Amino acid sequence: MTEKKMNVESFNLDHTKVKAPYVRLADIKQGQNGDKIHKYDLRICQPNKEHMEMPALHSLEHLMAELSRNHTDKVVDISPMGCQTGFYIAMINHDNYDDVLSIIEQTLNDVLEATEVPACNEMQCGWAASHSLEGAQELARNLLAKRGEWTEVFA
Fold this sequence. Notes:
This protein is 28% helix and 19% strand. The chain is of the alpha+beta class and 155 residues long. A hairpin with a 5-residue loop joins strand 1 and strand 2. Helix 2 (97-113) packs across helix 3 (133-145). It is an enzyme of class 4 (lyase). Its EC number is 4.4.1.21. It catalyses: S-(5-deoxy-D-ribos-5-yl)-L-homocysteine = (S)-4,5-dihydroxypentane-2,3-dione + L-homocysteine.
């Protein structure tokens, strides 16, 4: 591992020391007018050992992006990690970690109840053919089964 500090927070994280699944506060950015963006790392798969398949990841992204906003108006964005091991959740002016965990839990429970993937069509999605509701629900089910481990980031 390099000793040079990188500009991207997650590039400074030793991915060999974490234990998925977990939720951690990865960064806080302050805006000019005092607003704060809290970036949470929702790690679903163990880095360099497993990853989410793209159709399931894609559908979970759509479902979480849509359904999380039923529980809070603080979500700015939910973005998949390029390594396909988790998501970044950006929230504005919301640093209550326990509440963030609750919002994620409620959202994943909503995913289990979903009967379709929102915006899963060519007009609203850039790769509408790459979706799996069943895959997204399996990811949600597995993540919820390990709810008690979400606060344990390092092995």
